Amino acid sequence: MSAVVSETTDRSAAPHSAAPHRVGPQRKRRGATRWIVLAIAVAFALLMLAPLLLLVLNAFKTGADYSAHGPLALPQHVSIEAFQQYLALVDYPRALVNSIVISGLVALLGTALALVTSYAIGIGRIRGRSWLLAVFLLATMLPQESLIYPLFYGAQATGLFNTIWSVVIVFTVLQAAFGTYLLSSVMSTIPQSLLEAAALDGAGRFRILWSVVFPVLRPTLSVLVVFFFVWTWNEFYIPLVLLSDQSAQTIPIALATLQGQNSINLTALNAGSLLSLLPTLVFFLVFQRTLSRGVTVGSVK
Q1: Cβ(106)–Cβ(286) under 8 Å?
Q2: How many Cβ atoms are within 10 Å of 5's Cβ, its own excluded?
Q3: CATH for 170
Q4: Which pairs from 25-30 meet CB under 8 Å and 24+ separation?
């Protein structure tokens, strides 16, 4: 009897004793895979940061240093001569204020307009909902070159030409078209029982929008605000046509105009590009947690 028990115990203990020998190689393979993935991620990050590093490298060079050693060499000594030349030729504070005002207004107004229109389409269930969404999607796909003539003559006819309001109105509508397409699909997933319960409690449509729908969509709306701000900041073609006056120009237009109208070396151009990039970089870093939280909450829902 004892022999049978011992044999059974040995058989039952054999798999447990062999398990660590199988787990060890698996852990080693997983560890090697993680290091490979980490190395690929670091290489990809360096590749993405290479243009920015090259921009910073050449912004602190003198013109003679750049001509003598090229764009890839380290500066012989750190110099702010390029920044001084750029600030002497461009009214940077005025362009910075214009860009912040235009991008901020478009981000807020475009998100608010997208919230209202998507509420009517996603929850109101109006007729022709699919066709309206197709029109909004088509509006986001149209090239800006096809819109510039009616926008130019419309701005002249309304007296908004060479004012920031012409650009604000145009990009508010364009950004709201994309926001409507996105938010309407999100609103269609809100449980109808939640909306019906609010209606039974006596809440009207505006009350339901503000007290029920808005809190649910707040993470998604924060993501739209960040995206709309960055997208509008980087817009070039339409503001170039509608804002020919230097007092109303944004930073990208001022930089491009500087390159075309004045004799300027590449170091000053790099300095201006760096100054143009810094505000959006700071904005993104400030709202990075809001952006990541909105994307995470949206994916969990």
Answers
A1: no
A2: 9
A3: 1.10.3720.10
A4: none
Residue 14 Cα to chain centre, angstroms: 57
Distance from C-alpha of 155 to C-alpha of 103, rounded to nearest angstrom: 19
Q: Confirm whether 195 is domain-assigned.
A: yes
Reported as a single tens digit per residue, the pLDDT across 188-216 is: 778 888 888 888 888 888 888 888 889 88
- Dig out the tokens for 145 from the structure: 């070159």
Does residue 214 lie within any of the structural domains? Answer: yes
- Best CA proximity match to 250, nearest among 93, 71, 24, 107: 93
126-156: pLDDT as tens digits:
777 778 888 888 878 888 888 899 999 999 9
Burial of 175: CB neighbours in 10 Å, binned 0-12, 13-18, 19+: buried
* Helix, strand or coil, per DSSP, at residue 62: coil
pLDDT in tens, 85-114: 888 888 899 999 999 999 999 999 999 999
Q: Is the Cα torsion angle 237, 239, 242, 246 positive or negative in sign?
A: negative
What is the Cα–Cα distance from 103 to 228, expressed in whole angstroms?
A: 7
Beta strands in 25-77 (DSSP E): none
Question: What is the identity of the amino acid at 52?
Answer: L
In terms of residue numbers, what domain contains 100? 90-262
The reply to whether 241 falls in a domain is: yes
Asked, for residue 32, whether it belongs to a domain, the answer is no
